[in-house]
Amino acid sequence: MEGSSDGREKRRYPRVLIDSPLEYQNTGDSCLRGAMAVNAGEGGFVIESLRDIPVGTELSIALLFPKGFESANFKAAAKIVPKQLCRKEDSKGNQYGERYQYGLEFIQISDEDRWKLNWVLGGRFEFEETFPSLCCQL
Predict the structure, then answer these.
(1) Which helix (H) or strand (E) holds 115?
(2) I need a labelling partner for 74 at 20 to 30 A (CA). Which of 11, 43, 44, 123 fits?
(3) DSSP H or E stretch at residue 102
(4) Per-residue b/e over 67-82, b at no fewer than 16 CB within 10 Å?
């Protein structure tokens, strides 16, 4: 997370570290691809992927996350804003792979999925109390 010299958060939305699979496809494309979401906030995700995707690309995304002993989906449309090449190293400092890290900014998200996101981020809201009919769908 970025901070300022006085210790305050610079980001508009606080970030939460996550480690969840994410499926994405370019808007208008039928090819579904996989990535890992590494952190999340109310404004978007940071994901890691092996694919090189241009900044500005719009994606349809679905985050797969556990809910108890089940899994649930969170869907949104997002745009790649920053991009960074990351080199992975083993414990001895040997490089073994390259990945891209992307910042995704939400450009469209339903109210239902915004509530799911809040649940993933630590739950400012009790989802089951707010949407009891949807809990079995999560």
Answers:
(1) helix 111-120
(2) 11
(3) strand 95-108
(4) eeeeebebebebbbee
> Residues with Cβ < 8 Å from 97, sequence gap 6 or more?
87, 88
| d(C-alpha 21, C-alpha 36), whole Å | 5
Residues 6+ apart with CB under 8 A from 48: 35, 36, 38, 86, 99, 100, 101, 102
Q: How far apart are CA 119 and CA 96, in angstroms?
A: 35
CATH of domain 16-110: 2.40.10.220
Q: Are the C-beta atoms of residues 113 and 75 closer than 8 Å to each other?
A: yes
Each domain of the chain, given as residue ranges in start order, spans: 16-110
Q: pLDDT tens digit string along 6-31? A: 545 555 667 888 888 999 999 888 89
> What DSSP assignment string belongs to 31-45?
--EEEEEEEEETTEE
Residue 116, phi then psi, degrees to nearest 5:
-60, -40
Percent of the chain surpassing pLDDT 90: 41
Say which residues have a Cβ less than 8 Å from residue 69's Cβ, sequence separation at least 6. none
Tell me, what amino acid is at 69? F
